[in-house]
Amino acid sequence: MGYDAHGCSRRMSIMAVEIRERIYHDRKHPYLSQSYNNLSIIYVRKKQLKKALKWQLKAYFGRLESKNPDSLDMAQSYHNLSVIYCQACKLEKANFYSEKAIEIRLDKLNPLSSDIAVSYDNVSIIRKKEEQYADALSYQNKAIEIRTSPGYARQLPLAKSYQNLAEILFLLNNLEEALVAIDSALLIKENLSFRLPDFERECKILREKITAKT
Q1: Main-chain phi, psi angles of 123, to 5 degrees
Q2: Cα angle at 172 between 90 and 166, to 5 degrees?
Q3: Residue 146, domain member (yes or no)
Q4: How big is the CA angle at 61 (ends 60 and 65), to the nearest 5 degrees?
């Protein structure tokens, strides 16, 4: 029987929530909201969106009631709600929360912050689902510009940005650039110190689609 990393993380996060709920009777306490947020992220990774939304809303309302609605923690909840609604194909809500997250992050963070790149990735994915491919391309290029700036390591987030870029270029029928993008994603993956079989499989399937049309 294989090791279930997600299952272990979920159990640990549930334990953290239970302990902190006993310690902090004020449901607005930032440590408690962060535990709710962490558990929500785990459920997003497991594609259990109803549970992810339940816990993210707990984090969101706790942070909202803390009377600091423009905090970076609040931006985190806005972003994560956007991701959940995007995956659930509720794109109007996904757009609403992504705009809130970006507004706060652009105001409070360095323009080259990785959190801003994450927000641009998310907007690009939303625009792609809306079939607004030119906008999707613009936002994805903004994310890649940040992640290829000096001081950034060529890690998984950049590989995923290139993967999404390749998908957008493929949908725009820009096959040569799509092939360069997907090969860039695979090259970064090869240099990582850990295996990513699902990511590698998705990239190879996309590469086959691109080459079949060239």
Answers
A1: -65, -40
A2: 80
A3: yes
A4: 120
- The answer to whether 43 and 51 are in contact (CB under 8 A) is yes
Q: Distances from the Cα of 4 to the Cαs of 1, 8, 9, 11, in angstroms? A: 9, 6, 9, 11
Q: What is the pTM of this model?
A: 0.85
Cα 93 to Cα 27: distance, rounded to the nearest angstrom: 25
Closest of 162, 56, 157, 67 to residue 115, by C-alpha: 157
Q: Based on the structure, what is the number of domains in the chain?
A: 1
Residue type, 208: E
Distance CA 25, CA 33 (A): 12
- What is the spatial distance between Cα 78 and Cα 98, in angstroms, rounded to a whole number? 6
| 147 inside domain | yes
According to DSSP H, which parts of the chain are helical? 5-23, 30-45, 49-64, 72-87, 91-108, 114-129, 133-147, 156-171, 175-190, 197-213
For residue 31 the two structure tokens come to 């440590």
Q: Is residue 174 part of a domain?
A: yes
Tens of pLDDT along the chain (214 residues)?
Answer: 343 445 446 565 555 555 555 455 555 666 778 888 988 999 998 999 999 999 899 999 988 887 677 899 999 999 999 999 999 999 999 999 999 999 999 999 999 999 999 999 999 999 999 999 999 999 999 999 999 998 887 799 999 999 999 999 999 999 999 999 999 999 999 988 888 899 999 999 999 999 999 8
Within a domain: 171: yes
